[in-house]
Amino acid sequence: MPAITASKAEKQKFTKADFQSNQEVRWCPGCGDYAILTGALQVFAGLGIPRENFVMVSGIGCSSRFPYYVNTYGFHTIHGRAPAVATGVKLANPELQVWVITGDGDGMSIGGNHLMHALRRNLDIKILMFNNRIYGLTKGQYSPTSEYGKVTKSTPFGSVDQPVNPVSFALASEATFVARTADIYLPHLQSVLNRAAEHKGVAFIEILQNCVIFNDGAFKDVTERSIRDDENVLLEDGKPMIFGKGRKKGLRLKGLSVESVELGQDGVTEKDLLVHDQRAEDQTLAYMLSRLDHPTVMGIFRDVTRPSFERRAHEQVQNAKERYGEGDLLDLIRGKETWTIK
Predict the structure, then answer these.
(1) What is the mean pLDDT of residues 304-325?
(2) Cα–chain center distance at 81
């Protein structure tokens, strides 16, 4: 039972306003969450699916206010448990469009185990992780994605933790759709969300997001206009990995690592560059690309097709019914052997 999608012939016409709730949006002025919400609402409207067929599920954190601002069904759950609740929703009604909204603190700390299993099971849900490398709601403690040496209220002498890379984590968990985008790149953000909605299986999207109050400029190398062209590689399926001002740089494989090179220098041409294949079953290269810091790789790392968890689960139940009949709950509880104690 696939999630509800709409063909061009079946699509109903909706606007952003149809999916916008009557709740006052309350994030800090300048927060990147506003841009993400705007982009998501426009994408939801464009899918042509009635809002009653959507469910937003969130955990705890600034990003987790999201369900209040979308005029659909939703659950604001507990810290880190959004994937578990979303699993129940999807199993109960596989046809629903289920979107999980989480943050780097909510999803990668207490929720890391739940997130990993949702990804490996390939539930047909869409997981948006807002990553600002900080705990914003609890006022500026370091998070699992904070860089080594990060000075915060909870690490006054600098963090000694090795940070988690969300995209690497998702790939290692065998997610079938993995992408990275940023709050300020609205067209790119919407394009990735649209592709995620079309994907039949779990979709994980890391959204680099700025916290103006507690971690302003966390991704300035990715977003600052004067340098971002030389610091971002935009993945395009089937095309060589070219980037930089004037598109004079590229990525190539050197031994067991990926390196940045200058086109025309030392005889380097486009033929020497890596060509992106987001549908490759072997995700070794995608993982290597996810580990690059400079430049930062953006776009869809992986998009492969596998049967979804809820589809397999429902098929298993149906096969059991056909083989053994409907069954009886009381018999199931009692099991094959019972004892009567007098």
Answers:
(1) 94
(2) 15
pTM above 0.90, yes or no: yes
Q: Which domains does the chain have, with CATH numbers?
A: 16-235+281-314 (3.40.50.970), 240-275 (no CATH)
| pLDDT at res. 1 | 52
Residue 68 backbone dihedrals phi, psi, to 5 degrees: -65, -25
Query: Does residue 2 have a pLDDT over 90?
Result: no
Q: What sections of 165-308 are H helices per DSSP?
A: 166-172, 186-198, 220-223, 228-231, 284-290
Provide the pLDDT for residue 333: 81
Q: Give dist(CA 292, CA 260) in Å, integer.
A: 10
Rounded mean pLDDT, 138-150: 96
Q: What beta strand segments (E) does the chain contain?
A: 54-58, 73-76, 97-103, 125-131, 177-182, 203-208, 232-234, 242-243, 249-254, 257-262, 296-303
Question: How far apart are the C-alpha atoms of 328 and 335, rounded to whole Å?
Answer: 11
pLDDT of 33:
97
Query: What are the residues whose beta carbons fall under 8 Å from the beta carbon of 188, sequence distance 6 or more?
Result: 181, 182, 234, 298, 299
**Beta strand pairing status for 242-243 and 125-131?**
unpaired
pLDDT at 7: 61
Rounded alpha-carbon distances, angstroms, from residue 248 to 145, 245, 262: 31, 7, 6
Query: Which token pair is 43?
Result: 């994408």
What residue has token string 């915060």?
A: 152
Reference 228, options 217, 238, 216; nearest CA is 217
Task: Work out the pLDDT band at 338, boundaries 50, 70, 90.
Answer: confident
Taking the C-alpha atoms of residue 95 and residue 223, their distance in angstroms, rounded to an integer, is 37
Residue 242's Cβ-side half-sphere holds a number of Cα atoms within 13 Å equal to 14
CB atoms within 10 A of CB 280: 14
Written as six digits, the tokens of 242 are 């070219």
Per-residue pLDDT at 11: 73
Could you tell me if 86 and 54 are in contact, meaning their C-beta atoms sit under 8 angstroms apart?
no
